Amino acid sequence: MAIQRTFSIIKPDATERNLTGAVNAVIEKAGLRIIGQRRIKMTREQAERFYDVHKERPFFGELVDFMTSGPVVVQVLEGENAVKAYRDVMGATNPTEAADGTIRKLFAKSIGENSVHGSDSEENAAIEIAQFFSLADIVG
Ligand code: CMP
User: Fold this and answer.
1) pLDDT at 98 over 80
2) Catalytic positions, please?
3) Cα(110)–Cα(63) distance, rounded to whole angstroms?
4) Which of 114, 124, 132 should be mutated for ligand 1, with most atoms under 8 A from CB?
5) What is the pLDDT of residue 87?
6) Which of 22, 23, 104, 138 could form a disulfide with 36 if both were Cys (CB 3.0 to 4.6 A apart)?
7) pLDDT of residue 86
8) Adjacency order of strands within the sheet including 72-80
């Protein structure tokens, strides 16, 4: 199996409830390594650029408001098939549909305030990592 990297965000609903460590424990228990991590307050420009693919969606404004409402933790995760492995451990976007033991089932409040983001492909992971990390800040 291939060792991959993926990009993760611990969202404001989780940092607000002091859940960074609890989310990281689930990530590490799933066999993923946190090889880059920074706590930041996203600017509107950063959030709008990050979610550009969703800009025509009705929830875009709400999404940008939420992602800039408090601190987030941006992360680079590494492991076997990391993109899919992290999506599996995050669970479904809507927490009411997320499987038991997943981060969203454990912690998410709603489809919007759903605690974590993870890249949907290896190609997007590389783009998303490059938006928030320089190579010197990733130590595998
Ligand atoms: P994320 O993986 O960060 O990618 C896009 C985000 O849009 C998604 O997680 C959700 O948090 C958010 N989202 C998706 N659907 C809705 C919705 N119907 N209402 C509000 N936010 C949504």
Assistant:
1) yes
2) 117
3) 12
4) 114
5) 98
6) 138
7) 98
8) 33-40, 72-80, 3-10, 116-118
